[in-house]
Amino acid sequence: MRILVVGSGGREHAIVRSLVRSPAEPELLCAPGNAGIATDARCLAIDGGVAAVVAAAVAESCDLVIVGPEAPLVDGLVDALEAAGVPAFGPSAEAARLEGSKVHAKALMAEAGVPTAGHAVLRSRTEALEHLSCASYPAVLKADGLAAGKGVIICATEAEARAAVETFFVERRFGATEVVLEEYLEGEELSLLALCDGENVVPLAPAQDYKRIFDGDRGPNTGGMGSYSPVPGFDAGRIEEIADTVHRPIVELLRRRGTPFHGVLYAGLMLTAGGPRVLEFNARFGDPETQAVLPRLTTDLLDLCLASREPGGLAGAEAAFADDWDVTVVLASAGYPESSSSGDPITGLDRVPEDVEVTHAGTARSGGGLVTAGGRVLSVTGRGATPGEARERAYAAAELIEFEGKQMRTDIAARAVQTAAAG
Ligand code: AMP
Ligand code: GLY
Q: How far apart are the CA of 179 and the centre of ligand 2, in A?
C-alpha cells in the first residue's frame, strides 16, 4: 500500500513515524516533507497546492492521501482527490469550514447546543466600535478566516479592543471581513482530538498545548511550543463525556445537513468553572499535540484512517493508548514567532538517545549538514512511566541539540508533574 502524507511540519513527521510502525508496512511518500521526514519517507518536491498534490497522487497511484495542514483542506484538497479517484483522509471543504470560518463554527455550535463562549459577529468597523463600548473586559476578538493561530487578540481594555478593530477592519492584516467578539473565558486549556467517519466519534488521548512563546504563558501566541499527553484528571469516562457534549453533536449536525465530517475533529477547550467550553474547532491533527499523542497510540493509525473514510466505518472501533506519558518540547529559531531564522547549523542530534523521538519541522540540508529553515525547527518527545520521567527525558535531549538563537520553553508539563505528584 502506498500512502502520501501532505505537509512539512512536526505533525506530518509524527504521522509518518506512526505509519512506519504500522503492521501493514506501507510505502510512505510525503509532499513536500522536510529534511527529517526524508529519512522516513520519499519526499516529493511539489508545492502543497490542490492541483499539484492531486497530479502527484494520481501519477504515483497512491492508495491513500493523509492531509496534515488546514489550508489545503479548506481549499478542497480532499474533494479533489476523491473526485480523481484517490482515497483521501480528512474533511471535505464544506466540513472543514468548521475551522476555516469562526463565524460559521459559532453558528454550528449554537445550532448543535455545544457549550462555547458568548459572542457577537462584527461585520464592519462601525458595528464593531458600537459593540465595544458595551462589552465587558477582557474581551477576545477573532478574525473570521484561517490565520495560522495569529488572528486572535485578547484585549484587556476597550482601548486595546479599539486598536484591534483597526488591525482587523482598516489594516486588514488577517484578510477577514468579519470578526467575532467573544467573552473571555478563564481556566486551563485542553485539546481533545477525535477521529470521525461522518457518524461515529472515536476520541484520541487528551493533550495540553502551550501556545505562548515564553514560560508562564507570556509573550505572543505561536503555532505551539510544546505539549504533553495524557492530561491528569481526564480518564476515559471524562473524555467520553466531553465527546458527548462537544464532538458528537457537531458530527450529528453535519451528518443531518448532508455535509458529513470525516477525519480529525480537534476541539480546543477551556476548562472553566462551569464546565468545558469550546474555544475553537480545527479540522485536522494538532501541532505539536500530534507529536505527544501518536507515539502512545497502540492501535494501527492506518486502519483508523482508512475506517474514517467510510460512512460508519469506525463503528465499534477504539483508539487504544499506552499507559506511558509523552512530553514534547518544541525548539524554535531566533525571532520566532514574529520572524524566523534560516541556515543556522544544527548540532547534537546524534547524541539524542534512541528512545527520544525527534520530529523535524523547519529543517533543511546544506553542504551535508542540517540547518534551520523556519520558525519551529524540531520537536523533542520524551516518554516515561510518569509525567516527571517523560519531562526529564525530553529536556535532557532538548539540551543536547544546539543551534544559534535556539528558543524553547522550560515549563512544558511542569504543572502535570506537580498534579501527578499531588494526586
Ligand atoms: P483560538 O485560535 O480560537 O483557539 O485562540 C487561540 C488562543 O487564544 C487559545 O488557545 C486561547 O489561549 C486564547 N483564547 C481564544 N479564545 C478565548 C476566550 N474566549 N477566552 C480566553 N482565551 C481565549
Ligand atoms: N496546537 C494548535 C494547533 O494545532 O492549532
A: 20
Domains along the chain with CATH numbers: 2-90 (3.40.50.20), 119-183 (3.30.1490.20), 188-309 (3.30.470.20), 325-422 (3.90.600.10)
Choose the residue to mutate in 116, 154, 212 for probing ligand 1, maximizing ligand atoms within 8 Å of C-beta.
154
Each residue of 35-81: pLDDT tens digit?
Answer: 999 999 999 999 878 999 999 999 999 999 999 999 999 999 999 99
- Please state, in angstroms and rounded to a whole number, the distance separating the CA atoms of residues 376 and 359: 11
pLDDT at 26 over 90: yes
Which residues line ligand 2 at a C-beta cut-off of 6 Å?
A: 149, 209, 224, 282, 286-287, 289
Predicted confidence at residue 221, as pLDDT, reads 86
